[in-house]
UniProtKB/TrEMBL annotation:
<feature type="compositionally biased region" description="Polar residues">
    <location>
        <begin position="393"/>
        <end position="402"/>
    </location>
</feature>
<keyword id="KW-0547">Nucleotide-binding</keyword>
<protein>
    <recommendedName>
        <fullName>Stimulator of interferon genes protein</fullName>
    </recommendedName>
</protein>
<feature type="compositionally biased region" description="Polar residues">
    <location>
        <begin position="372"/>
        <end position="385"/>
    </location>
</feature>
<keyword id="KW-0472">Membrane</keyword>
<dbReference type="Pfam" id="PF15009">
    <property type="entry name" value="STING_LBD"/>
</dbReference>
<dbReference type="GO" id="GO:0005789">
    <property type="term" value="C:endoplasmic reticulum membrane"/>
</dbReference>
<keyword id="KW-0812">Transmembrane</keyword>
<dbReference type="GO" id="GO:0000421">
    <property type="term" value="C:autophagosome membrane"/>
</dbReference>
<feature type="region of interest" description="Disordered">
    <location>
        <begin position="364"/>
        <end position="402"/>
    </location>
</feature>
<dbReference type="GO" id="GO:0032481">
    <property type="term" value="P:positive regulation of type I interferon production"/>
</dbReference>
<dbReference type="InterPro" id="IPR029158">
    <property type="entry name" value="STING"/>
</dbReference>
<dbReference type="GO" id="GO:0051607">
    <property type="term" value="P:defense response to virus"/>
</dbReference>
<dbReference type="GO" id="GO:0061709">
    <property type="term" value="P:reticulophagy"/>
</dbReference>
<dbReference type="GO" id="GO:0002218">
    <property type="term" value="P:activation of innate immune response"/>
</dbReference>
<dbReference type="GO" id="GO:0035438">
    <property type="term" value="F:cyclic-di-GMP binding"/>
</dbReference>
<dbReference type="InterPro" id="IPR055434">
    <property type="entry name" value="STING_TM"/>
</dbReference>
Length: 402
């Protein structure tokens, strides 16, 4: 759920397929240019290039296969050769090598000595550059792969925060708020407001960041058996926020997984710098938003408040952001789904003398206005050979022209 401070301009969006489109377009233009330069030998040269690329990938996959088979077959694959093969060889490489084998054996295709020398040289250069990491994936490609495969630290933390805490706390939050409101007074919002600072600096008490945010009391505890711990308790705290002689109250807390990101960035063995930490925080916010929006039991029970680290020097930035979110919620309208009775029958309006008879019948025997029970209606029997009767207003007027 996006807030009111322009998170769309701060949170990165998912990457599009623009690089693929550009690559395909540029590749077609280059093929056209090569055809214009040498149209007679374009097919022969294209076949040799495809042959070289396939052989290069196959040799590199064989090197990967040797490592996995000799040193990791038991621990990683439980001696299953098919899994090792699938992990090292991509489908197009296997298909290309089969096509090359058939082409050389039965296709009658042969290369000259100079061409074989060129193919060998290209394979050698490829393997050297690949080993040195020059042809390896860029940081953008690695980031895209991790986001598509859900392999980032932020993905795991977001799912852990949802499945281990929010999934059972948020559905029960409304009941606890109602218990609190019946004895302590109505709160400004019944949602759980989750604070997510971009710099991942999570204080123990919000009062340390803003003196206008004051702890009031805790809501009734939720107890449940979790991971072998009997009657583990989960608490939510109510805070009072003041601004310009106005006081608001809401359930407030920081996203605790951000502590993990912050501490990881201060451990040298984690290889997690400040730049990576900020990216993971924003990705955590985006992932958690998507998870909660897709959860029917948690929808409209929370509010994610992203705190920009550019305003950390302002003494009352936190209270201003919280109040801004609270005021925005006052204008929101949530439509409950309309529930219809099962097998509900909607009557069809009748026309002609049958309708006139029913109107007269209702006038003689009116229904009880307080009764909602369905009644069985009978129409006056009509002859099957009766003439049709015009019932429009024009023809029913006394002075209408016939």
């Amino acid at each position: 759920m996006y807030g009111v401070t322009g998170e769309d301009g701060l949170v990165p969006r998912a990457r599009s397929r623009l690089p693929v489109v550009c690559s395909v377009g540029l590749g077609l233009l280059m093929l056209l240019f090569a055809w214009l330069l040498d149209s007679d030998r374009i097919s022969e040269r294209a076949g040799m290039v495809a042959f070289c690329i396939t052989v290069e990938r196959f040799i590199h996959s064989m090197c990967l296969f040797a490592e996995e088979w000799l040193f990791h077959s038991r621990q990683r694959y439980h001696d299953r050769m098919n899994e090792i093969f699938q992990a090292c060889f991509r489908g197009y490489v296997v298909f290309g090598m089969c096509a090359i084998f058939l082409m050389l054996m039965w296709g009658g295709v042969s290369f000259s000595g100079e061409q074989w020398s060129t193919i060998t040289l290209m394979c050698a250069v490829y393997l050297v550059l690949k080993s040195l990491g020059i042809l390896g994936p860029t940081s953008v490609e690695i980031s895209e792969i991790c986001e598509m495969k859900k392999m980032n630290v932020a993905h795991g933390l977001a799912w852990s925060f949802y499945t281990g805490y929010l999934k059972f706390v948020l559905p029960d939050l409304q009941n606890k708020v109602n218990q609190y409101s019946s004895t302590r007074g109505k709160m400004s919002s019944s949602r759980l407001h989750i604070l997510l600072p971009v710099n991942a600096k999570v204080p123990n008490k919000p009062e340390e960041e803003d003196t206008n945010v004051i702890f009031h009391e805790n809501l009734p505890e939720l107890e449940r058996d979790t991971a072998g711990v009997r009657n583990r308790s989960y608490k939510n705290s109510v805070y009072k926020i003041t601004q310009d002689n106005e006081t608001f109250s809401c359930v407030l807390e920081y996203a605790t997984p951000l502590l993990t990101l912050y501490r990881m960035s201060h451990e040298s063995s984690a290889g997690f710098g400040e730049r990576e930490r900020k990216q993971q925080v924003l990705l955590f916010y985006r992932t958690l938003s998507q998870i909660l929006e897709d959860s029917l039991e948690c929808r409209n029970c929370y509010r994610l408040i992203l705190l920009n680290d550019e305003h950390t020097g302002e003494p009352h930035y936190l209270s201003r952001e919280i109040i801004q979110h609270l005021k925005q919620q006052d204008g929101e309208i949530h439509m409950d789904p309309i529930q219809e009775l099962p097998n509900e029958v909607h009557p069809v309006p009748e026309e002609g003398p049958i309708r006139n008879f029913n109107v007269a019948h209702h006038a003689t025997y009116p229904e009880d206005p307080m009764s909602n029970d369905p009644t069985l209606m009978f129409s006056q029997p009509q002859s099957l050979r009766s003439e049709p009767v015009e019932t429009t207003d024009y023809f029913n007027q006394p002075n209408a022209k016939r």
